[in-house]
Design a protein that fits this description.
Number of domains: 2
Number of helices: 9
Mean pLDDT: 95
Shape: globular
Largest sheet: 7 strands, parallel
CATH superfamily of the largest domain: NAD(P)-binding Rossmann-like Domain
Strand content: 15-25%
CATH architecture of the largest domain: 3-Layer(aba) Sandwich
Strand order of the largest sheet: 3-2-1-4-5-6-11
CATH topology of the largest domain: Rossmann fold
Order of helices and strands: EHEEHEHEHEEHEEEHEEHEEHH
CATH class of the largest domain: Alpha Beta
Radius of gyration: 19 Å
Distance between the termini: 46 Å
Length: 312
């Protein structure tokens, strides 16, 4: 299939979700990936995609890549490590979005899609949570930064006539060892298949979605969302407890560990213990995930399991 003549730019395109998106778009458009490789890997960028190692918060360094771009997918995250200082984490992520927006506005980009997070809702939201829920009350610096970034991007509608769509993602899983719960369990069971430590009490209940389904959701939003400013939840319609997730991962790896728990109702400070999103607004655009919540975990565990070797 030949390119349609469209130029699409993906910030954070060497990351977990960005690389899936780049692969999905590579046959239909000219795709440009910008990534500073602080958490991504150039090995993930598919063949045929133009890759540039650049800090997208630096407008002077990145501006030229936005020229004649029709659509920007902004997936770059400067810092999401919960151990990072709150002020450092907030400033780093907000600076990235300011840089992307400034460069996109200067180049006259007409549409931008931003990957936000379910963490913007905090822990008091009803489940499943609709996009209309408010006030947004995040309990982590990462969630607070996402709220600020959404607000910053919304100004582009009035300032530059740009259409902006926000995609609030559930917990994303896939074939990457990124420190989240599924790869954490795979790594722990690879080191010791007889015992698995679970953070919290194991009753935390969350929705999970595979990165490949996030990629199709983002494409659907880009193609079908109306002009102006819109917000869409991206997730599956069910949830799993962390203990259920552990059992699925153990089953995929063919091990039968004893479970131990660190205790408490959450895994870490700022962890939202229960989350499930209402995705009816996105479904109305014609999107459906291929994998449900359990299917996403099973597929991710299989993909991760292929990359490790359990001890004899």
């Amino acid at each position: 299939m030949g390119h349609t003549g469209r130029r699409i730019l993906i910030t954070g395109g060497a990351g977990h979700i960005g690389s899936h998106l780049a692969a999905a778009l590579a046959d239909e458009a000219e795709v440009i990936v910008l990534d500073d490789l602080s958490s991504g890997s150039s090995d993930r960028v598919p063949t045929g995609v133009s890759f540039h190692e650049v800090d997208v918060s630096d407008v002077a360094a990145s501006a030229t890549y936005y020229e004649d771009v029709d659509l920007v997918y902004h997936l770059a995250v400067a810092e999401k490590d919960v151990a990072a200082g709150a002020r450092e984490q907030f400033r780093a992520n907000v600076d990235v979005t300011f840089g992307v927006l400034d460069a996109a506005m200067e180049a006259g980009v007409e549409r931008l899609i931003f990957t936000s997070s379910s963490t913007v809702y905090g822990e008091q939201a009803p489940r499943p949570t609709p996009e209309s829920y408010g006030p947004l009350a995040p309990i982590s610096p990462y969630g607070a930064a996402k709220v600020a970034e959404e607000a910053i991007l919304s100004t582009a509608v009035e300032r530059a006539g740009m259409s902006v769509s926000i995609a609030r993602l559930a917990n994303v899983v896939g074939p990457v060892f990124d420190g989240s719960v599924t790869p954490d369990f795979v790594e722990k069971l690879t080191a010791d298949p007889t015992e698995l430590e679970i953070l919290g009490d194991g009753r935390q209940e969350k929705s999970f979605i595979h990165a490949s389904d996030v990629a199709t959701a983002l494409q659907t939003i880009a193609e079908a969302a109306p002009d102006g400013f819109e917000v869409y939840n991206v997730g599956t319609t069910s949830a799993l407890s962390v203990r259920e997730l552990a059992t699925i991962v153990a089953d995929i790896l063919g091990v039968d560990p004893a479970y131990s728990y660190t205790g408490g109702d959450r895994g870490w400070t700022g962890d939202v213990p229960r989350m499930c999103l209402d995705v009816s607004r996105l479904e109305a655009l014609g999107w459906q995930p291929i994998n449900d919540c359990e299917g996403a975990i099973r597929l991710a565990a299989e993909q991760l399991g292929e990359q490790v070797e359990l001890p004899e």
